[in-house]
Amino acid sequence: MKVRSTLLPALASAVLLVAGSCSSKDQPAPPTTEQPSTEGTSEAVQPQVLAAFQELASQAKSDLEAYAQGLASEGEAPLDLSDLEFEIADVETIQRVLKGNLQAPLPTNGERQVNEGLVQAISHALVGIYDYAKTKRVYICPTNLENNARLLGITDLNEPDAMYAVMLHEGAHAIADRRFGLRDFLAKAMEHDEDAGLAADAMVEGYAQYVARQICTKTGKLKGLESFTRSISAIPPVADASQRALLELQVSQSTFSYTEGERFVQAVADALGEPGIQQIFATPPKSRTDVAQPSWYLHPETRPQESVDWDPALGLVPGYAVAFPDMHFSLRNLSQPEVEAAVSVLGPAEAKEMAGLVQHARMQVGVTPMGERLFVVGLSSMPDAAGAARYIELSEKSSKLKDEAMKHQGMAQITSSEMKPIDNALGKGFDSTKIVRFQGQELPVRTILVAQDNVVIEVTMSNAVIDDGELMEMIGKVRQRSLGAAEDSAR
């Protein structure tokens, strides 16, 4: 089950793709090299498939009920799962449920909408989904399981144990929904900011993995769960460099919710037992940085003191885009796995090194409804000034490698690129301008990275949101405010 909130337009995603190191949780999943078949869906299920499905569903439901009874023995009110239903679904059903789930926790004023193109793309890959928004049923798509097994080269996905594991994962969402109310849980988190919504998503997926792993361990079907989990992080063969880069970003974000979410839930459960699970859903971590550090949640006194005044500094950014009143801004953290995926062109060793330099990163992301204008300002703290300098060096190398890889072909092409060094009062770094061709459109994309002491400021914008004078003024004020200086109220 995916519960992402607002989704960037494809054009904005292409802009972020060519930036130095920024990425966004809202990268749309690009189309795969092969459109999956929808034959064998719920309208024409073969009898042997239906019989096998019903047997697996009966076992999964029985095992989930046993798990729920265990919760009651620890003092919780009994959970009645007798009405939980499992159904074979076609891609259209998966798409309908996914859209409903994504829309459910969003504000009803229509300010934030679900990207239809992304919903359609994801629905061809989802193997199961729990409909927490409407029917409260679990839907399983054997067609997508079969296609994923073939496209990803994970033949074990065709085994009954894999479908059983998917049923447990989605059924665990039903348990969480009945215990904690998923719609309200996610809506409350999204009210805080985008990153809190992503952290809540990690708790939802992490808890489902945690429950599925406990049951699979008891029933001896861990291999099926591992096959399912492995498919989440797998990338199909793609020749197009830009398409593969978008896939890597999307996969890194999805994988985080499942792997880091489960690791967090397991750590809290090991320390506090079931009361810890209740605590997670009552007071979830506020960011993915917190999700990656469960010890901070368990022992808040161990959390290092921040040297950067993040939100007041980034809060200055929207004031520089008043000429575009339809530009929507949101604050979010940038995780190390996202940095690593965004600069994968460096190769595994240097991409991991660059991501490992980032102690904390937060961005103010502004985008117009169609994505033709993007305005992203990021602040990242490194261990020291040498780490910040190395980060700039690797960002410059990554930018040049992207120029070469995306020069001649692909869904997004870099048709020209110019880079100038920066060494002034703002810091040391570079100023890069590229022309990006995407879906028949060409647009200028400018990225500025400067390091001062252990802090890196990165600005990426398309179609000249502000002029040079305002840009340099903004960078200086953001840096000054990040040090805790008095907020400039002149704007």
Description:
- The strands form two sheets. The chain has a seven-stranded antiparallel beta sheet. It has a three-stranded mixed beta sheet with strand order 1-3-2, sandwiched between helices.
- Strand 2 and strand 3 (about 140) form a beta hairpin.
- It is globular.
- It has about 500 residues and is of the alpha+beta class.
- It contains 18 helices and ten strands.
What is the topological layout?
Elements: H1 10-18, H2 47-73, E1 86-88, H3 91-103, H4 116-123, E2 128-130, E3 138-140, H5 142-152, H6 160-180, H7 182-192, H8 194-219, H9 222-233, H10 241-272, H11 274-282, H12 288-291, H13 294-298, H14 310-314, E4 328-333, H15 336-342, H16 348-357, E5 360-367, E6 374-381, H17 385-405, E7 412-424, E8 427-438, E9 441-452, E10 455-462, H18 468-482
Parallel strand pairs: 1-3
Antiparallel strand pairs: 2-3, 4-5, 5-6, 6-10, 7-8, 8-9, 9-10
Helix pairs in contact: 2-6, 3-4, 6-7, 6-8, 6-9, 7-8, 8-9, 8-10, 10-11, 10-15, 15-16, 16-17
Task: Describe, in short, the structure shown.
The chain is α+β, with helices and mostly antiparallel strands and 491 residues long. The protein has 18 helices and ten strands.
